[in-house]
Each structure stands twice: as C-alpha cells, then as structure tokens.
What does this fold into?
Amino acid sequence: MKFKFALLSIFAIALLHTGCKKDGPKAVETPVIKEPTPPVVPADVILDRPINLNVSKGAFGSKIVISWAQVPLAKKYQVFKFNDTEQQYKLLQETADSTVTDIVTTPLVKVFYKVKIFNSATEYSPFSDINFGYASGKSYSKLLSFGSGGTGPGQFQYPMHVEVDSLSNIYVSDDNNYNVQKFDIAGNYLQLFYSGPSPRGIAFLKNGNTVVTTASGAAYVTILDKDRKVVTKWGSYGTGDTQFQNIEEITVDNDQNIYVVDGQNNNVKKYDKNGNFLLKFTAAIQTDKQIDKAYPFGITYFKNKIFVTSPRNSIIRIYDTLGNFIKSWDAGTVCYAIKGKGDNLFVATPAYVLKTDENGDIREKIGEGDFLTTTVTGVAITNNNEVIATDVYARKIFIFKHL
It folds into this structure.
C-alpha cells in the first residue's frame, strides 16, 4: 500500500512539472509588446517617470489627446503608440509639452500609448503606465442647451426658426409667443429683439440691417436698421409677387438680394435689399410617395447657388440665382432649415442636424441621440462653426461645438 501511494505521489508531481492543465478562456489583457531597443549607452541620470497619463476617449472627434503631469528636470518627452501590425510600440512624437494630439481615422477602436522622458541618450526615465483612448469619428459634440416652456424671457412656446449674427448672438423666432428673443453664445438672454405675429426667418445684411419675416400681419417682410427702426416693409396675404401665404426660411446672396420661401404658394420670391421684386420660381416638388402637396421650407445661398428643402419629402433642390433648376439629391430624411458654411451644408432633420457636402454626401449626423424630441426644425452656424439648433417641442435651443 505504501509503495502504491509513493508511486501515485511521484506521478502527480511529474504531471505538475509538465505544465499540463485544462484549456480555458484567455483573459483580455493589454497587448503583449516588444519593448524598443534600449540605448546602447547606459543612463548616467535616471529621471522620474511620467505619471497621470490621460488619453481621451471619444471626446475630440477624429483626434485622441494624450496628456500627463509635467516632471521636474524633463526637457523632452517621447510618446509611443502601439502598432497593431508590428505588435510593438512605435515612437509617435517627441515634444517639450505635456500634451500631444494623435489623428485617428477609425472610430471606437482602442489605441494604446505610453510616455517617457528622453532628454538625451544618457538622461531619460522609465516608461509611464500604459493607457488607451479612442476617437468618436464625430467632429461635433453637445456643448449646452437652454430654454424652457413659457412666455417669459428665455422661455419658448414654439421656437421653430433660429439665426446668428456676426458676433455669434442667437436669435430665436417663437411662432406662438409672437417674438424674437436674442441670446449670447452661452445662452444668456440679452433682449426682446422683435415683437409681432408669427415671426419666421431672419437674415442680416452687410450694412447692419436685419430682415425679419412673419407668417401673418400687416407686413410680411420688414427691414430694421441697427436701432431696430423700420427701414421698409412689404407683403400681404395672397399669391401675387409681393404677397405670401406662409413664409418659412429666408437667405441673402453676395449682392444682398433677399430670397423668401413662400411655403403654401410653393415658390421662392427674390427681392433686392430695398424690397423691390426681382423674380420668383417654383421651389419644391411632390414625389410619387408623397400625399401632401409640394411645400418648401429651408433655403440657403451657398457657393453661388440656392438650396431649397421640404419637410414633406427628403429631396433637396438646387437652383442658380436666376431661379433656374440645376439638380436635386435625396437627403434620406425629411428636411427643414438648411444653412451653408465653409465647404458643408447643415440640414435640420427631425432628430439631428445632417452635415453634407454640396452634392449630398453625408459627413456627420450632428446631435443624434442628444435631442429630446424629433422636432428639430431650425439650424444656424456661427463664425466659430458652432451649430445652433431648435428642438421645438422640448422648447430648447441646442449648441454643438466644433471639436
């Protein structure tokens, strides 16, 4: 019996030393890496390694920001990035700063980094801890929102249209409160800019005057000077050249001509800066699947062309400044206000702001998942490329910053 027990013990020990074990799932770990070849010359000075390595995770669109605490005696840092193809860390950048930016084109993929001090071949530090980050692929993120339901300053009942001036002040047209309120870029209430029935689109002329339109009242288009005194006004209800049935958005071209969308009449009317009628053209179409009649809504002057949208279909139609139809493209969703800035168009759709090029190629869906309802109708772009959008039934204005 003792002999058998001894044999079993020896056999168990032998198995233990052979490394035999039951297969199981492998743990997910930081990538196994090949360390960079150390300097041939031994260090004369070993410095403290960098600490507090922070790597952004989706906060800066297509960029990843790597930062760490400054280390005394450090003159230069080396930032290493893990290379998936070579399965090792490669030098990304040398810098005297404690922050670097890495451009990453693939969103939501973890990228690993580490940092060391490298003053010279004989004066350096060990590596920091490893940390990872990733890009979101977006170029905009929500900055803030403001507003609530009501009739007081900073409150809205139906904020359908929005515009900004050259100082990035925000003007919100509230159909049901019969006013246009002015805010700064932080959403602080500045003043009651205009009071009148059903205000709609707003535009600013180079001479400092403001064009304000309404959907009813004694005059449908009013031009105000810098002191908000009436310069000229025109328009009544009807189908004539200076008549309207339901004004929506407006835009101004480089020659300061004013284009007014007349929704119910399905046309765009063009006037000079003094209100003289120039021409009009049909603005929208009724598609085969569309039950309601054609109805235009948004308009913008962009790259010497006029772009017009409709909330009753997804077609964006393009005209020259004489009203001649050029072409159209499908945005894939119903469209409200539209604005052009730089090389891109920004289109208010029910649940996000669609960013495209002039041919309709989608660049981004700004604010997707951020809005509280599916009634995003107004959009404006500041000189700093912030996107301002109205969420009508939430009674809020959203501001998105460019990353």
